[in-house]
Specification:
Elements lengths: L7 H10 L3 H5 L10 H21 L6 H10 L4 H4 L10 H12 L6 H12 L3 H23 L5 H18 L2 H8 L2
């Protein structure tokens, strides 16, 4: 702790240790459970790839910003934990808790700004980051299914979300190869 706040070193270790709850609820053991840092990295790489392809088509987008937004989209979870959608806590309550958590992190205001941009979803970069976050979850669901875990509810929901987001961005063909598993 640095003056009552979590330093970046603690944020990194925390997110690298925090197993995503939804997988464990469905029987995936923590020993092979995806941690938040893995998820964020996957989302960032997917956001970069999708953004670069959209930019090649003439879409006005900053691929590096989209990747950065995806990278930090779950940073507040280091304080509040990974709250599963089935927890009964609304998306708005989770967002407010994570927003308060940001104030406990010793990170640059630009990082906080990227997190907020993801939550607001107003920019094309934030919408691509949201798509990439959902796509990362879908790809992980396929992986766990190949290992024999029943995560079909997550798979089906994420497939629907990915296709809706991709269509709104004109990126359906870009993500189709991933969606088909």
């Amino acid at each position: 702790m640095h003056g009552g706040r979590l330093g970046l070193d603690e944020v990194i270790v925390g997110l690298s240790s925090l197993v995503r709850t939804g997988w464990m609820i469905r029987g995936v053991p923590p020993s092979i459970g995806e941690v938040v840092a893995e998820h964020s990295f996957s989302a960032a790489l997917l956001a970069l790839e999708v953004s670069l392809r959209l930019r090649d088509r003439g879409v006005s987008i900053d691929p590096w910003k989209a990747a950065a937004i995806a990278l930090v989209h779950d940073i507040g979870e280091v304080v509040v934990g990974d709250i599963a959608k089935t927890s009964g806590i609304s998306r708005e309550e989770k967002r407010r808790a994570e927003e308060r958590a940001l104030e406990l992190l010793e990170v640059h205001d630009g990082v906080r700004s990227l997190f907020r941009e993801f939550e607001e979803g107003a920019s094309v970069e934030a919408r691509v980051a949201r798509l990439a976050e959902s796509l990362a979850t879908l790809l992980r669901a396929y992986y766990y299914e190949r290992l024999g875990y029943d995560v079909s509810d997550i798979r089906d929901n994420m497939r629907r979300v990915v296709l809706e987001l991709a269509e709104s961005l004109g990126a359906t063909d870009i993500v189709r190869v991933f969606v088909e598993g």
